[in-house]
Amino acid sequence: MDIFGFDKELIEKEKKFLEKRKEDQKPIRAFNIHEMMDHLNRLSQFSLKPPFQRFLTEMQWGTTGGALRLLITPKYHTVIQRLQHDLSGEPVWFCKKVYSIDYENYGGKEDVVANELYEIVQNLEKEKLERNLAEYDLESLAYKLSNVIKSFKHDFLIFQGIKELNENNYELYMFVRGAGVGRTIGARMSQRVNEYILDLSFNEQTGNVKVFFFPVSDEDEGGNMWIIQPPDFFQFFSSGQQINEIIDAVMVSLKCF
C-alpha cells in the first residue's frame, strides 16, 4: 500500500528513464548522399545550365569553358570546380570552393545541404572567369597560408615550418601531436601518421597553381622506414584567383584531418 505516493513517483521516474534510454539507443540517421544529390538535381532544373550526373558523387553544369562540377570526397568534402583553359590552352578544372558536410548532425536534413550547395553554384555561375597569369607571387600565398595555419587550433596538427624549394615551389610542414595518429583508409587503419606536408607550386608555362597535402608515416612500430601516403587534397587553382579563395578551400580540407 502506497500511503505517501512514493511508489507512484518512482514508477513515473523509472518510466521516463526507460523512455529516454530507448530514445538514446535509437540508431542515428546517417547522412544520405543519394537524397542530397536528388534534391540538388531538382533544384538545378531551374539553372541556366541543365545538370547531368555520371556518378552518385558527381554533378556537372555545362561542358565548355565556365562549366561547373561538384565532387564529393570520402571525407564528405564537397569540392566545386570550374572549367577554364590555362595558358597552354589546355582545359583544367580549377577548385573554386570546398564545402564540408556536417554528416554527423545533418542526417535527415539533406535538403538543407542541397540548398546551400545550390546557392554556391548559382553565385559561381555569375562570376567572371579568371585569367591565368605568367607570373605569380607564390611566396605571398605560402606565408599567408602558413600564418592562417599557425592561428588555427587543431586537435592533431601543429605547424612546424615552411621551406622554399625554389621560387615556384614551397612546402609547409605540420607535426602530428603526440606520437602520431592512425589514418583510416576505407575500413582499415593504415600506418601511423607522423607528419603532414602541404606542397604549393606554380607552373609558369600553364599559369596553374597546384596545391596538395599528404601524410608521412612510419612503416613499422620502430619508425625504421618513412613512407609518403596518397594525398588527402590535390587541386589546381587559377593564378588569377583571389588568394583568400585558395586559402579558404585549403583550410576547409585541412580542418577535417
Structural notes for this entry:
- The protein is of the alpha+beta class.
- The chain has two domains: 33-126, no CATH class; 138-255.
- Helices cover 29% and strands 34% of the residues.
- It contains five helices and twelve strands.
- The strands form two sheets. Strands 6, 7, 8, 9, 10, 11 and 12 form a seven-stranded antiparallel beta sheet that branches. Strands 1-2-3-4-5 form a five-stranded antiparallel beta sheet.
- Strand 1 and strand 2 (58-61) form a beta hairpin.
- Helix 2 (33-44) packs across helix 3.
Layout of helices and strands:
Layout: H1 6-24, H2 33-44, E1 51-52, E2 58-61, E3 68-72, E4 77-85, E5 91-100, H3 110-126, H4 138-151, E6 157-166, E7 169-176, E8 181-185, E9 188-202, E10 208-218, E11 226-228, E12 233-238, H5 243-255
Helix pairs in contact: 2-3
